[in-house]
Amino acid sequence: MGEKASAGQDDKFSPANAALGRACENLSDGELIRRAQAYDSAAFAEIYDCHYEGIYTYIYCRVNNTHVAEDLAAEAFLRALEGIGSFQFRGVPIVAWLYRIASNLVNDYFRAQARQDVVPLQDELLPTASNPSDIVEQQFTYRRLQESLRELTDEQRQVVLLRFVQGLDIKEIAYIMGKPEGAIKSLQHRALSTMGRFLGKDSDEAGL
Amino acid sequence: MKRDFESILDECLQQLHSGQADLETCLARYPEQAAALRPLLQTASLLRAVPVPRPSPAAKAAGRQQLLLAVARRRQAQAQAPFAFLRSWGQSVAAGLSWLLAPPKPARALAWAVAILLLLVVSGAGVVGVAARSSLDSPLYPVRLVSEQVQLFLTLDAEAKVRLQVNLAQQHLAEIEALRQQGRLDSGVAGRAEALLADQERALQQAKTITGVSTDVQEEIQAVLEAVRSERQTVQQVMLLTPTPRPSLPPKGPTATLTPSEIAKPLPTPKPAEPTATLQPVEPTATPPWAPFGVPTVVPRPTGQVDVTPTPITPTVLPPTPPPSAPTATPPFAPPTVAPTVPPTSPPPTATPLPPTATPVPANPVASNLHMSSSAGGGPVGSFPAGTGTVYAVFDYSNFTGQKIGLRVHDPQGQKIFDSGLQPYQGSGTQSFAVSAPSGGFPAGRYLTVLYGGEFAGTITSIFWQVEAVSPTPAPKSGGLLVLWVWLLCPACIG
User: Fold this and answer.
1) Which has the least CB within 10 A, A40, A65, B72, B493?
2) Chain centroid to CA B34: how far?
3) A42: nearest CB among B9, B55, B244
4) Is the ipTM reported for this complex over the cut 0.85?
């Protein structure tokens, strides 16, 4: 278990398409939830190990603050513990439930902060790679992503993060955001269009 | 029409993501929408390739520990549910006594008589008396807690009430410590102990606020309060280190063939001179050996102060060889050749059971005094000079019976540069790991050493340490060399 706990931590960055939300597909959600509802520590350890990084990344991409993201991610799992007793497994994957908790926590955070859900650029928060050229590449790519995300509405941004960073499907995102699947598809379409226009313009300006 | 396009887009995205099709294949399937689909799919591909930040190992470990502790508390609360009626009964008794102690009324005289009679009957039955001597793992323990509440309630003098509270807390502390040393703190009892200590801590904090109490009593409250907090931290660590009981799991093979006496005896090991065999047992420490829960000890402090336990280690308890991974006397790690030594005609284990007192009960495992050092037996060092090539991570362990712990080191960027892996420990002693820099010494910065272990490899404790930056080369030297070269080439140019 120790190796499992530290696995995947050697790199500060991983490609988004690693599908963070799909870290442990081999687990049977129904069985896992039954064990978790009996407060089985091993079940919660599995849930945490499988989904912590995805939840953290999702929160970080929305709040763009390492410490806040760490606090909220830890809080999300404590909320899951509080709510596991009343959770009913009806085909909703546990990952979607966890993201819904995380999403609500971020919304509460922004409400408490009484400010808009914007994604500010904070270079000092960008993790560093070992190779200097990698650092530059990472910063450049991440900056472009952040800037294009700024062009989106909060709902569009959530769909982008959940769909393309976390690797969730439309049905799960619909559950997390409490919207019909058709609405999520529309949000996805509009978000990609807006980002595509922005990134294309950015490339033209940079002469790429 | 618009909805159709969105469905097609999502279908293509899904196929691209799952690897079922590439971009051109998707576009070929929908030639009418290809022009509109292409930029959207390209943007999506770009998004998927963008690196995303990963959480720091320290934060992940801290969150994990926090969660598992909360789970343990929940499990304990659930296990205590059958005793809930006793708590409510205690509260009812307290409420009834409040009513009885209110200004006298004629009806209360009769109520008083009934209450005293009831108390005498209960006392006469001996339930309370027996419960008063019950320990934490006894079913009568909740009765004892109720009787203590009643006792506290009936003590009207403020100072006497505080003294009683302090005495009760000391009694509970001593009992929990004894249970821990006897190895009787399994996950259930440890959870109960943690809840009890939390109650005691709250009660003592409340007692501190009572005015009119003498200074010596106040000092005693503070001392007991600190002891309660220390013991609570230790018990919390025991809760994490102690595996959850899983009765449904079948017993492991070789151990099922051993009699209790054989289990108690050390089994022969392949290496006769095992390091743990020469170690002196470490007395249980009175100070808290674990980092406090809820305190983010793994988060870098803004002041840059290095958190190193100042307790020096005793060089004589250092093992002569580094890895203590070889198992010794615990049955799960016994060599397979042990089982055949039991004669086939010997009775099954249940036929010749030894009395419980004959089996030595191990105390709970404790790992403590994690520090960095410049040598294998050296004292704590918080800051290493620039160019240091090897440092040593040192910690003490005691009362281990095969529990696994590991140690890892992270560099200033959070990268893991050393991991011992989980290794089983036996007995007591001091472990030292040499951590070497890849080349040219450790880069300057703040490093993190994490001691992890337990059933779920949670963080036990962690420390930060520093490698100093290289001081800049003094300029006069190169300047002097330059002058020398100029003078050699052109003596007339100088002076």
Assistant:
1) B493
2) 57
3) B244
4) no
